[in-house]
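@channel sequence for tomorrow's demo:
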Amino acid sequence: MKKLPLGRWTVSQRVVDHSIQGLLIFASVFLAFWLNDYRVEVAERRATEDALAAAINEVETNREILARWAPYHAEISRSVEAELAADAQERGPFNPYAYMDERGIFREILTYDSWEIMRQSGVRLDLEIRLAVNRVFQQQQYVEKAVRATVGFLGSRELFDPELAEENRVIFYRLVTELHAQEEAMLESYSRFLDTVASG
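structure tokens (generated this afternoon):
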């Protein structure tokens, strides 16, 4: 067995071989762990970027939807308000559909799928961005609530009761006006969110 001199000590070739093999095994295990961590980090970063892109896309789509509906609801609100301001004797029976066109009251869906995915997947967003996402989609629920209230009113059986005409006209006015106000506030929030994301 060949021995290698090492100062005052001598080391056998076998110990040197085992040491080199141990060092290589350690280096390969360390490298495997590092590569795995790197892959996980890249996957998390990609998931975060994808989730944020999905939220931005969803907000832009929802903003386009509200931009189409808000002026229409403002027009309905003004029409009902003008009728309420007129002499009560000149008002005919209440028919909410007389204020609407073929679009009805609201026939599109505001979505928040990206927010649900973010909440369930544990995507790592910057705190300011995460708060902005939460705020914008939570506020959107107020618009949805106003839509549901208006649609619910339009589905009530007492809607065409002549004795409730004035009361129904006032209720409809308040519901549509609230819906429009929520839409305008939401449009501002969508723009603020997009500005926050663009600057963050």
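heads up for whoever presents: Residues 44-199 form one domain.
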